[in-house]
Every structure is written in C-alpha cells, then in structure tokens.
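Exercise 7. Given the components listed, write out the predicted structure of the assembled complex. Treat all entries as one system.
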Amino acid sequence: MQHFLTTADWSRSRLQSILDDARDLKAEPYQARLRNKTIALIFFNPSLRTRSSFDIGAHQLGAHAVVLEPGKGSWPMEFELGSVMDQNAEEHVREAARVLSRYCDLIAVRAFPKFQDWSVDRQDKIIHAFAEHATVPVINMETITHPCQELALMLTLQERLGMVDGMKFVLTWTYHPKPLNTAVANSALMIAAKFGMDVTLLCPNEDYRLDERYMGLAQEYTSSQGRSLTVTHNIEEAYSGAHVVYAKSWGALPYFGRWDEEKPVRDAHKHFIVDAEKMALTDNAFFSHCLPCRRNVKVTDEVIDGPNSLVIEEAENRLHVQKALMSELITP
Amino acid sequence: MQHFLTTADWSRSRLQSILDDARDLKAEPYQARLRNKTIALIFFNPSLRTRSSFDIGAHQLGAHAVVLEPGKGSWPMEFELGSVMDQNAEEHVREAARVLSRYCDLIAVRAFPKFQDWSVDRQDKIIHAFAEHATVPVINMETITHPCQELALMLTLQERLGMVDGMKFVLTWTYHPKPLNTAVANSALMIAAKFGMDVTLLCPNEDYRLDERYMGLAQEYTSSQGRSLTVTHNIEEAYSGAHVVYAKSWGALPYFGRWDEEKPVRDAHKHFIVDAEKMALTDNAFFSHCLPCRRNVKVTDEVIDGPNSLVIEEAENRLHVQKALMSELITP
Amino acid sequence: MQHFLTTADWSRSRLQSILDDARDLKAEPYQARLRNKTIALIFFNPSLRTRSSFDIGAHQLGAHAVVLEPGKGSWPMEFELGSVMDQNAEEHVREAARVLSRYCDLIAVRAFPKFQDWSVDRQDKIIHAFAEHATVPVINMETITHPCQELALMLTLQERLGMVDGMKFVLTWTYHPKPLNTAVANSALMIAAKFGMDVTLLCPNEDYRLDERYMGLAQEYTSSQGRSLTVTHNIEEAYSGAHVVYAKSWGALPYFGRWDEEKPVRDAHKHFIVDAEKMALTDNAFFSHCLPCRRNVKVTDEVIDGPNSLVIEEAENRLHVQKALMSELITP
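Answer.
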C-alpha cells in the first residue's frame, strides 16, 4: 500500500506511467476498474474542481465517492497523538482515519495551512496524520503542496510539447489581494524540475523564495539532470526565451502570520501581472495557472483567453490524472 | 445544443413533448437513457426538492449528479467580463463554466435575485453567464423565473384537467413575512398563458403587478390564442368561477430593495390567504403552490390538506419533468 | 410498512434477525438488494460515520442516497401541525416528508435535542413528525436515542462474546467539557438489557440517572429475563467483574438547559475517565464507545488503543447493521 502525499516520494518514471495511463483514460473515460470501491473525499477547505473531478472520476471508474467536510457537516478534529481532548475537537484523526478505512478503499484529503506559523504549517500534520492512521491509501488534494495539480500540469505540457526536457519553465509570482498558500508554487517548481526542465522562479524579492525544502528538491532534480534552477527578480530576464509561463500568487514566508507587514510589499508588485507585453518576450510560451484565477489581477483577459492559454486543458486533465492515480493506488 | 433558461424560448409544442415524455417516465422511472453522463448542480441558494429531485432523477436515468455550492463548499464567483478581480470573488464564471463543461454533460444553476436593485436582478446575469460560457446545456433551477416548476405545474394540471385551454387560472398573491422572489409568480403567469388558459392575476394593488416583461409575454400568449389576461385587486371577482387557484407571495417591484417601506402594505393584506371561504367561490377549483409553503399564512391547513390540493403531486412531478428535460437536452 | 424509531418497538428476535443478516452482509458486502431504490438522509446535526456509512451502505446494496441538511443547504422546517408559520421556518415537515416519500423509498433522520427543555426534547417531535407524515419507512439516525448504534454495539459484542445473556455490562458516565445528549446512553442501556445482560449504570450521583422511560424499559427487559439493573456511583463496585465497559458522557437531566449550574458537578468527576487501573478490576472486559470520542478525557490512549478496545469494530459494524436494516424496511 502506498500513499500519494507528495511527488517527492515518487520517481519520475512512476509518475510518467501515471501520466501515460491518464492519456488512455482521457481517450476512454468509462472503465469499470474500481467497481465496488468507495472513495472518501475530506475537505477542510473549499473546492470546485477538486471536489467535482474526484467525485466524477470515481464514478467514471465504477467507484462511489462520499464528500465529508469536518467542522461543517462533520465533527471538528484533533491531530496530535497523546493530547488531552478537552478543547473544541470532538474526534481524533486516529479514529476518523481508521473508521473511514473500514468503509472506504481510499481517502483523499484537502487541508490548507492555517497561515499563522509556517514552522507549524510546513510539517503538514493533517495529511500525515491521515496517512499514519489510515489503513488504505491516502491522496493529497492540496495541503502545502498540490501533487494532483502537478500531474495535471505535466500531462498538459506533454500534450502540447512532448517531452519537456531542457525547455524553459518560468514560475512567476503574481499579485493577489490576500496572502495565498505556497502549495501550487512549491508543486510547480518540483514537477518542472523533476521532468528535466530549466526552471526559473520569478518573484519580487528574496522574501518570496519558496521554502528551502522545495527549493532544495528542485535544485537536486535539475542538477542531477544537467538542468538549471534560477531565481530572479528581473521580469525581462525571466520571460526571455521561456517556453512555459506558470503564474501563481503566494504569501512571503518571512512575513508568515504577520500579513499586514507584507501587504505594502505585495501591493508594490501589482505589475507582476502576466500580460501580452511580457509574453511577447518569450519563445511563444504557453501560459497556465491552476484555477481559480483572478482575472486582470494575476493575468490579463487577453492572455488567459489567448490561444496559448492552457488553463482549461490543465483543469480538465485533473480529472484524467486523478483517475489514473486512484487506479494505481487501489489496484496497483 | 440548447439551454433551458426560460420557457419563453421554447414553443408550446416542444414543451408539450417534454410533458408527454415526463408522463412516460412517471410510468417507468428507471430508464438508462443517460448512462455515462454527468450533471453538475450549482446552488447559490438553498433547496430541498430541486436538489433531491435533480439528483435522484439523474440517477434514475443512469447519470451521476454532483452538487456544488459556490461561496460555501466552493469558491465565491465573479460574473462580469473584463472585471478586475481584486474583491471577494476568487473564480470567474468563465473558467468555472468551461471547466465544468469538460467534466459534465449538463450544468443546472439556481441563483436567486440579490433583492437590492431590480434593474440589475432582472438581467439574470448569473444564469446567462453560465449559458454564455458553458459548452454544454444549462438548465435554470430558479433565478427570476422557475421554468422547471412551470413544467411540473402544467403536467399536474393536465393530469387532472386534460388540455387546459380556456380554463380560468388565478394566480393570487398571498402574504409572507418577507418580500419574496417573483420567480414562481412570473413563471405561473407565463405557463398558464402559454397553454391557453384565461389568466387572472390577483394582487393587493398596482404595485404588485409583475415585471412588464412577463406581463407582456402573458398578454401575447393569451391574445394570440383568443384568451384573456386580467389583473384585479378584487378577491371575489378573481376567485369566481376559477378552475385553478395558484398561490404565491412576492415583493412589490416599486419597493425593491426598500422593503421597510413595503412592509405596511404587505401587512395590510394578510387576508389574501387562500381559505375555504374563498375557494367556495370557485368552480370547485384545484389549489396549488410550488412549496415550500407557510401554512396558515399563505393557505389554511383545510385547503392545502383538502382533496383539491395538488401541492404534493406538483412537487412529485418536478422529478418527472426534469428527467424528461435532461433527456431532451443531453440526447435531443 | 414499519419505521425504525427506537428498538423499544422491536422484539429481541426481530432485532436478532437483523444482526444475523448484518453478519451475512459483512461477509458479502455487495448485494444488489436495493437496486433502483433511493434513500434520503436528513441531517439537522453534524455527522461523519452516520453520513458516510448510510451513503456507502446504500450504494453497496445498489441504492442511491441523497444528503439533505435543513437550515443549511435546505429550508428551515416547522414540525407542529396547525401552527401559523409566520416565523423562521419556510417549510412544514408535512410537505417535506410527503414530497420526499414521492422521491425516495426510505427517509433517515438525525435530529438532536435542542438542550433547552427536556420535557420538550423527550417528546422527540422531529423524528415522530417525519414518521407520521412520511409514506415510506423512517429510520432514526440519532435523536434522543441512537438505535443504529445499538445494533452496531450488539453485533460487535456477539462477534466477540457470542450470546451475551448474563454477562455484566457497565455503562459508565464520563467527563466531557460540554453537556451531551443522553441518546447513546439511553440506547446502550436498552440494548444491553434487551439482550439479557446484567446491566450496571455507573454515574456521579442520582442527578445523572437517565430518563425514567429508558430506566423503566431497562428494568422491564432485565426483570423479565431474570437479570438485574443496578445503578451505582461507586466506581470499584461497577467495574468489578465486568465483561463489557461502555463509556459515554451526558448532561444531568435535572440541570437541563441550566448547564452553568451543572458544570461544577461535572468538573468534579473528571476521574470517571476509563483507564487501565479501572479496567484491571474487570473480568478482562472489552471496552467500547460510540465515537467520536475525546481521548484522555473520556478514556486514556492506553485503553482505547488496547487489545480489548472495540471502538473501531463497533463503528465498522454501523455499516453492516444499517444495510441489514434498510434491506428489512424496504423489502421486508
């Protein structure tokens, strides 16, 4: 039995075999591979694509999905072992995970950071607690990384570009009125690096570097394949010659939990928006973003609606890669 | 591909063929017509009948439904093209509709008016935005009209009365402690007129006339078939000789968004309640209402529980007409 | 047609036949007994196990479940007949139950007490209103009793102990920071008594006796089978020689709705926690609890994680007994 918590635990070749299967499933969506199987989808945070694509994907494979929302439709939950549960939480993850493992064949969990203390959030306790206590496979539906989005992104790139080795992938920070999760940024960095791209991280200043864990993995992936990882704050340098521009906003880790202090810095970088002028510097690059996306804040209508925009394809591919993933985990 | 946004876009004969099919589906509920199809049900507002009848109806046809609630389980949404999305909305309908169109074969949307400015609400932007951006059929599950309720009402009347041409249909305003949506009132007016009934609108005073758009359509439908549309504030005149009494409360459009000013007017008309005394003036009329219904405020227990009450039949028929409708839109 | 509102309405032998069928279904979970059937699950309160086990159980039998949450995704509801509905409730249970009976083959309801006035709560109006107005079977998914939990508990005990007649069952009150529903306590008392166990109720003082209705039933069940019902406040006496220790917290009925006054009493009895020292007094007793369970408040990690803990088995068995129950009610 294996979990899918982060792509860091999976080799490039195993990930590629999931992508290959996803392509098959895209061509032939209804396959009763998971007949008489049940999937639990646990959302601690909102979702549109993830919720519907997992639910529909399970159904297309003959399985049945149930959606649970702890703290809303379900009980608030405790994650620490040994704690004295005299506060708000009514249920310990140890029971929830073990009971759901009796009812279901797979548990998928979305649990965003709390945004108060990065040293706590970076431990990713909720998904790890489920993985520790569950006796069935656990899938990460976004915590501090978003590995399903990684698979969707890479499938989309391979559909348009074939093998992407050596191509220039730019992950650009963009403005957003609120400090956001670094999950998709961490993930984009890792998957582009893992699949042999030359990766450039464009951000306003050094405070917007991603966590050393993900920077280190990206460095390791690129170095070992003779590729490069570059961090720059220079927009022109970043976009120049790019094959793929991937946009995402995130909050600066040094200001974590003290967002009022970061606000002026973010507000000063609204010009990081992806627009046609910047895209003109690239090698006719594809543009993508994970959705939901604030139009005319992160990217102009012109770019997101343009012929090189992959946002809808990437969102569609969530369905296909997740089906391949569920299939791999439940019936390896 | 065709949407079902309002019955105004559909001919009487096409609507009749849906009603005919609904009768077949009522006799034989399980037919795998929509096997391997998926339906997205998007609720911006609460629902009991609509949610369960669409979900169950889809299942009975072999399809799978997913329920999404933007702003609750899903992301808050933007509907204007070209807007700079720096406020609350995280997702633009353009992405949501296109992505769901990749996952699903039909999108159904419930989006009530905001009740602040009728000149805005009457544009019915949300459902039209979904219809514009989706690449699959869109069904209106109640916005400023409620076309599925229209089909259910007409099927119920035809089951009891056969063809209803020339029969007297009374839409009576009733009291309700809050100003309500005009959707079902607009819809009742349109469908009764479209199917050749003599239509009487009974309301407290001229302020409670419905929007000119729906008054105009009802006038056009009745005139072209040699029938009449009458507006009256006289209870006795309205009920006299009626074959069908349909009750609904709604807020007066001239007071839209300034409900405190309307309150005394509404409060002065609690006697518009449908009761046995009024029903005695009719030609043994059937009574109906769309549900949910406040008992002993809009209608007395005696009438709603009486032998001529069609409320449960009409609610049941929601299931059958919606199945016929989904079937027609997905596999025309 | 029969409802399942409380086990008090069902004979021991009929309950046993449900348990026997549950064992068969546990061995062979997928049986298309309820093909083309639909189940409505109505939650007025949160749920994890109940919601997922009913949904999954229905699916495993070939049926389809829809989840409704009045007041959240659905309309607030009125339960009194004859009321003038000019307050918050938009829908009367009489309509909701009759309409759902047209859409579905079974209605299951969770409705906790309001915790303001026990003389009101003990009437259990919501579930009885559904049972009165529905034209399909109604299942109690926890109100002031929790009969599905009773079945799961008894199946679990029989799996470990065979027939339990004459064995010592201890229901122990435990501390909890909030006053809780007596439902599971009432239920544990009834089912252990009904199946011929010697029942001991351990609680801090006379104020924590359960309602006379359930005390009376337990007395009747035990007396008629030559067994005993004992109430004690002495921990050592209760645990001594026990074969089963079942833990639950509940609020003291004499303080109902005036919980601030009860708080010091509860706070003074934190030592009622189930721990290894107390369990050592038993005849190697099994421990169980209905979940969710506050660890190290109601029971120590050592006991709940120990080899004699049945909590996960009992929770799993919810699935199996509920499938047998749905099967019995829909296709008797």
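Discussion: DSSP finds 13 helices and eleven strands in chain A. The interface with chain C takes residues 36, 38, 40, 64, 66, 68, 70, 72-75, 78, 81-87, 89-92, 94-96, 98-100, 102-104 of chain A (CB under 8 Å).
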